[in-house]
Amino acid sequence: MPIPELDLSELEGLGLADMAIYKPKGGLGKLSGDRHQLRKDSSEEDRSEVSEQDLILPQTVNTRCHAVLDVQMLEKQQMGKELEQEKHLAKKMEMEHQKAIQMQKQLQQKRKQELIRGKHQLKDQIKNNKERAIQAKLQDLEAQEIRDHLQQLHLEELRDLEHKWQHKMKPMQRISKSTRKC
């Protein structure tokens, strides 16, 4: 992965804007050779234009850049993990929501079935009550008919008895009339 170039504002944010930036011509691999050469030539200060401080500065900038990149990479990974967690939680919440909706539908269906069953029971009770009422009226009518019939029979019996009594009384009345005449 190539190292991105940092502009002046990013360097200022890192506290590196006021430092001199050193770019070795041969790359960083040559730096170690330059250091070795500097150690050899440490007695000859006037021949060496590069000081040790000038070598440390690019390494510090490079190290800080890598540190910033590492932090950015870690932040990116952390954000990726958080995004995955959020997706997982969203999926889990959606599943729970669907489960709740399904349970609500089942509960409504169960209530609907109970209402239908209750309605059928009420209809059956009303029908049974009507049938009982009709049967009770029929029984009352039959009982009334029986009472009327019994009363009719009783009246007929009374008439028969009266008629018999009058037949029996006729001879007695004749006797009584004849005894009165005499």
TrEMBL record:
Residues 25-53 are annotated as: Disordered. Residues 63-177 form the Trichohyalin-plectin-homology domain. One of its GO terms (cellular component) is motile cilium. Residues 32-42 have a biased composition (Basic and acidic residues). Keywords: Cell projection, Cilium, Coiled coil, Flagellum. It is found in: Cell projection, Cilium, Flagellum. Residues 76-147 form a coiled coil. PANTHER family: CILIA- AND FLAGELLA-ASSOCIATED PROTEIN 45 (PTHR15504:SF0), NASOPHARYNGEAL EPITHELIUM SPECIFIC PROTEIN 1 (PTHR15504). Belongs to the CFAP45 family. This is Cilia- and flagella-associated protein 45. The lineage of its organism: Eukaryota, Metazoa, Chordata, Craniata, Vertebrata.
